Amino acid sequence: MPKKNSLSKSKLMAWRQCPRKLWLSVHNKDAAVVSPTTQARFARGNEVGGVARAQIPGGVYIDTKGDMDRALKETAAALRQKPRRSILEATFAHDDCRLHVDALIPEGRGYRLCGVG
Question: Which of 2, 17, 36, 82 could be cross-linked to 93 through a Cys-Cys bond (beta carbons 3.0 to 4.6 Å apart)?
Fold first, then answer.
């Protein structure tokens, strides 16, 4: 399981925007203020995610509402039970890195990782 302060795409993007933003997001999460514009962007992202899921019928949807441990377990279970089906919202971890992909799609002998937006 990844550590609490593991590396993620969100953290990399925060650092690229402003190193202090990353520091605050890790060490002072409670101080975050989410503006109405950001709330609207989150809502739009959720809508886009729903549209993307509709484009991949028959996929296994991992709906864990941000519970990383559960997402990791459900992704592993889906890969064991249905290895050649698409997995939507798949989550993986290795050491202190984690990866969350919008869609993991079987392709050839492997998989293609897809991100929406």
Answer: 2
